[in-house]
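re: the backbone from monday

yeah here it is again, tokenized this time
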């Protein structure tokens, strides 16, 4: 029974983190449209931003949150924002360098992987 509860909590945490990445990407897409002349307006990032923030809020209201998820969720938000920024700057080289955005994204991804336990060594007696 506790194993099923763990899987449900892990699925809920994964949903929260994916929604945070989507919200970060959409937020940066809207910011890029406002600040860069090369990026044209699209309504889809605005729609996706509203829907992802609404889904995050509903998830927050319906399920209890473990102690690490808010900080990891914020890191996932910044992974989405800096990742999208690096992608946009790779498409439009005149907008500036994407080196810092890539380093920040990779550093945050390593930290998230460590916090979620993906970087721990597996025990041999499984």
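seq for it, each position gets an aa:
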């Amino acid at each position: 029974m506790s194993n099923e509860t763990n899987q449900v909590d892990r699925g809920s945490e994964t949903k929260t983190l994916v929604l945070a990445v989507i919200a970060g990407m959409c937020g940066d897409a809207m910011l890029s449209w406002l600040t860069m002349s090369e990026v044209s307006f699209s309504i889809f990032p605005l729609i996706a931003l509203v829907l992802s923030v609404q889904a995050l809020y509903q998830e927050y209201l319906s399920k209890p949150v473990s102690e690490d998820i808010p900080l990891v969720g914020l890191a996932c938000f910044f992974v989405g924002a800096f990742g999208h920024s690096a992608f946009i700057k790779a498409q439009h080289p005149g907008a500036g360098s994407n080196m810092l955005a890539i380093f920040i994204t990779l550093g945050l991804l390593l930290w998230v992987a460590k916090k979620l336990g993906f970087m721990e060594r597996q025990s041999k007696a499984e």
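The chain has one domain: 1-116. The two ends are 19 Å apart (CA to CA).
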